[in-house]
Protein: NAD(P)-dependent dehydrogenase (Short-subunit alcohol dehydrogenase family)
Organism: Xanthobacter flavus
Amino acid sequence: MEGSVIVTGGASGIGLAVVETLLGEGWRVVALDLAADSIAKAREHLAAHGERVRFETVDITEESAVAAAVARTAADFGPLKGVVNSAGIARDIPAFDTSVELFRKVLDINLVGSFVVAREAAKAMRETGGGSIVNIASVSGLRGNLGRSAYGASKGGVVTLTKILAVEFAPLGIRVNAVAPGPIETPLVRELLTAETRAAWLKTLPLRRTGTPQEVCGAISFLLDEQASSYVTGETIAVDGGFSAGGLINV
Ligand code: NAD
């Protein structure tokens, strides 16, 4: 593949699996993350890819840091052709226990951060013939999941932001889509799910199992591929073991 892709949250979980998949497809990849220990491990894990991958410590809520990272990527790795907005945090807390401070923090990272990265990336992409932006939403942005007032609202915002940016950026040759994962085995979900909530998820999922980070990558690769998904924009694809399709299932 010609050109470069930025993956936010690329040092862990779904983001890291995406970085590895895209390297395998021939992309040059810049991963932005905050967690120093995850970045160190990811660098070691992907060392064989040499200079085709770079990890940078960038907070996606910092506009000037994001703008600088986009400029460095285009200058060093070739025209920016794709972005995967995977950086995010999750909280599972009843609404009565959710402080305004926490609510704002979740929105700031998951929604505002995704917006900042998409906007800055689109500024670069419009100069070089367009590209594809993939936001990682969540099934909690599609359904009323218990305990997800802040997280679900942020991801519902990501789904709508995806549609709006798809419409605004279409004339620039930039497609914008989202992937909404169900429960995927990553550090985030292991921290989030108690034994009880895990059991409840397994009962509710038609496929009766959680997913792997690699199982989310196919939809993301499809949406980044200019030929395979050339007529797809503003769409959210659920990769969720059937969760968002489901209703009453046999228990
Ligand atoms: P993860 O915790 O393994 O990875 C998220 C990464 O984002 C971490 O490395 C973290 O350091 C980074 N990050 C957080 N805030 C950041 C910031 N301000 N700037 C830069 N990097 C930041 O989590 P994951 O499970 O891989 O989740 C990835 C995305 O997928 C998230 O947006 C999450 O909401 C979404 N998602 C995950 C699941 C799941 O079941 N794992 C389900 C639905 C949606």
About this structure: Residues 152 and 158 are 10 Å apart (CA to CA). DSSP finds eight helices and seven strands in the chain. Residues 4-242 form a domain with the Rossmann fold fold (CATH 3.40.50.720).
